[in-house]
Amino acid sequence: MNLNVAVFLGSKLGSDSKNLKIVEDFSEWFCSENFNLIFGGTETGLMLELAKNVFKRDSKIISIFNKSLYDEYPNSKYFSELIITKDLSSRNELIINKSDVFIALPGGIGTLNEILEVINKNLLNEIDKKIYLVNDNFFWTPLEELFKSMSEKKLLDQKKLKKNFKVCKLEELKSEFKKNYAKNRS
User: Fold this and answer.
1) What is the DSSP secondary-structure string of 139-181?
2) C-alpha dihedral over 81, 88, 9, 173, to 10 degrees?
3) Domains (ranges, CATH) in the chain?
4) How far apart are CA 71 and CA 143, in angstroms?
5) HSE (CB half, 13 Å, CA atoms) of 105?
6) Residues 140, 185, 119: CA angle, nearest 5 degrees
């Protein structure tokens, strides 16, 4: 069974040139592991770079668009399977249901929304699925610090958060996957 991995990342390239290198390195590893990509966004910015890299290596890409987003970008072509949902909430729900694990690369508000939804569903015991934030360029450090501050102010159970949430470098992510997810593949 191939692992279904949802990847959240920006629809824009951003100002940090390291973002493209992170996506390139991530894509190379991702495809070498033969994971299935669950992808929920436009084919623009960093998302386009990921989709192109994964597609050209013949890995499976399940692209899940909400209708209004697909209407805006109807010429999308980097997918093995396309699913169009009625709205953003149903798109996010389908991504969560279809995915075994989640990874976030640098991104904007949409990426943050997806991350927070996965974290919150874990905290509410609605799901039990890990989410990793790849932090090679320290992009996610401010979010990690915010969570630490919330925990110090007794607004967040840090122990419960850490059960399924990790901010790490790509090399650490690779080790985590080798240790935790190799058994799920045949």
Assistant:
1) TTHHHHHHHHHHHHTTSS-HHHHHHHEEEE-HHHHHHHHHHHH
2) -80
3) 4-178 (3.40.50.450)
4) 32
5) 29
6) 30
* Closest to 40 (Cα-Cα) out of 88, 105, 106: 88
**Lookup: tokens for 56:** 């050209």
Per-residue pLDDT tens digits for 140-154: 999 999 999 999 999
In this structure, what is the dihedral angle of CA atoms 75, 32, 99, 95, given to the nearest 10 degrees? -20
Per-residue pLDDT at 169: 98
Q: What is the predicted pLDDT for the residue at 25? A: 97
CA 68 to CA 65: how far, in whole Å? Answer: 8
* Residue 87 in tokens: 């709205």
Predicted confidence band at 182 (pLDDT cuts at 50, 70, 90)? confident
